[in-house]
């Protein structure tokens, strides 16, 4: 339909992509997403909104692609002609980036450049959102805001810093409406199972069901600013609707340690003292760690009218309840 806005999401099958496509459909968008070919289905987070392309009034379209394939990216941008690109696709696991630094740089760094170049060469007035990360701040002391210097501590963060500056550069040099959302950690019932919050809540469900006895973790002292993902994808949308292209920190301003998360979640699940279940496995330590992240989101509050709603304790409850329910449904 002529007046319907079109969005193209890379990383549509991920946690954030799945919430963003739901959000944009409610706003009346036609949504296109890039998916990777895999030998097993990788669309479980978006299966509930899948629309058969043969039916009428379809508003969700999936396209095979990969961030390492510039020909494919150029073709998709020229075919879809989106009004807005939300670039969320990435090898997003910090620990894994130490094992696969070159692949991470290719996907998370050069992948961004490939999209920006395709947008520039298309000549179309496409707005671009870059999923930048609080990991870029590394060991810069908290609270971190848009003016805090970057000090990346992983191949993942190095690649994200590259993408952050590429986004700014294409804005300044070519006048593209290109923006960075510097998002602090955001979690949900759809969070990947190997990130620490979800690893904990999933393990709680398994321990309660008698399937596991122990949970093996790494650094419990690290502190993160954990928010709720559906609220964070709304910020992405607001960033692209702002009157001018700009960069924004999106966070809750509250900081908790991994130990705090263990304490809160095990107690809420009725399992008592987490220390009975948790063991340290050095394989989960990182060659370099980001110890403390706490975001100052005042610019987003003032300019976008965005602020987080879900508090830490409620986030823990949402995730524990969902994992217990998931497991019960499977059994
Ligand atoms: P996620 O759940 O890991 O999703 C990543 C998405 O990227 C998936 O759809 C994945 O596809 C896709 N992808 C990975 N490699 C790709 C490649 N080579 N080509 C095309 N697609 C590829 O991540 P998320 O938590 O939703 O995060 C979304 C974005 O925000 C990421 O860029 C992440 O780095 C960034 N970020 C996340 C957070 C956070 O706390 N969640 C905070 C700051 C920034 P498959 O499903 O096929 O694997
Ligand atoms: O849950 P994590 O793996 O998330 P991390 O490294 O903060 O990265 C996430 O947030 C970033 C935003 O700041 C995103 F850009 C990135 O894509 C990703 O979404 O680890 C959180 C903390 C770390 O300090 C880690 O060392 O938890 C510690 N941790 C302790 N034991 C563990 C474990 N992390 C994982 N994944 N697994 C453990 O067993």
Q: Would you mind describing this structure in some detail?
A:
By secondary structure, this protein is an alpha/beta fold. Helices cover 40% and strands 15% of the residues. It contains 10 helices and 13 strands. The strands form 4 sheets. It has a 7-stranded parallel sheet with strand order 3-2-1-4-5-6-11, with helices on both faces. β1, α1 and β2 (30-35) form a beta-alpha-beta unit. α1 packs across α7 (229-241), α2 (70-80) packs parallel to α4 and α6 (196-208) runs parallel beside α8. It starts with 5 loop residues before the first strand and ends with a helix. The structure holds NADP nicotinamide-adenine-dinucleotide phosphate (NAP) and ligand G4F. The site of ligand G4F has 22 residues, from α3 and α6.
CATH topology of the largest domain: Rossmann fold
What ligand species are in this complex? NADP nicotinamide-adenine-dinucleotide phosphate, ligand G4F
Adjacency order of strands in the biggest sheet: 3-2-1-4-5-6-11
Strand content: 15-25%
Number of DSSP helices? Answer: 10
State the shape: globular
Instruction: List the helices and strands in order.
Output: EHEEHEHHEHEEHEEEHEEHEHH
Category from helices, strands and their pairing: alpha/beta
Which homologous superfamily in CATH is the superfamily of the largest domain?
Answer: NAD(P)-binding Rossmann-like Domain
């Amino acid at each position: 339909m002529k007046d319907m806005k079109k969005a193209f999401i890379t990383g549509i099958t991920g946690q954030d992509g799945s919430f963003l496509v739901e959000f944009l459909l409610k706003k009346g968008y036609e949504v296109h997403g890039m998916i990777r070919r895999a030998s097993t289905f990788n669309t479980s987070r978006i299966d509930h909104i899948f629309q058969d392309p043969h039916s009428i009034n379809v508003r969700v379209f999936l396209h095979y692609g990969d961030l390492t394939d510039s020909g494919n990216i150029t073709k998709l941008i020229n075919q879809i002609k989106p009004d807005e690109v939300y670039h969320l696709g990435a090898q997003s696991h910090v620990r894994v980036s130490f094992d696969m630094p070159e692949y991470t740089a290719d996907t998370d760094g050069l992948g961004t450049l490939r999209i920006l170049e395709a947008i520039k060469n298309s000549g179309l007035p496409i707005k671009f959102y870059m999923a930048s990360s609080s990991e870029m701040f590394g060991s810069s002391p908290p609270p971190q805001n848009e003016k805090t210097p970057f000090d990346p501590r992983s191949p993942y963060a190095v690649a994200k810093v590259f993408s952050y500056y590429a986004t700014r550069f294409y804005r300044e040099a070519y006048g593209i409406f290109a923006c960075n959302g510097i998002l602090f950690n955001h979690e949900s019932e759809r969070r990947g199972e190997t990130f620490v919050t979800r690893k904990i809540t999933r393990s709680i469900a398994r321990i309660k069901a008698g399937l596991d006895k122990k949970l093996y973790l790494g650094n419990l002292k690290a502190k993160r600013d954990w928010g709720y993902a559906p609220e964070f994808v709304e910020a992405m949308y607001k960033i692209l609707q702002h009157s001018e292209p700009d960069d924004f920190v999106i966070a809750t301003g509250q900081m908790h340690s991994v130990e705090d998360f263990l304490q809160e979640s095990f107690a809420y699940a009725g399992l008592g003292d987490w220390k009975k279940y948790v063991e340290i496995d050095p394989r989960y330590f990182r060659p370099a760690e980001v110890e403390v992240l706490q975001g100052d989101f005042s610019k987003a509050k003032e300019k976008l009218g965005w602020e987080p709603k879900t508090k830490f304790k409620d986030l823990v409850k949402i995730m524990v309840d969902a994992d217990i329910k998931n497991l019960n449904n499977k059994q």
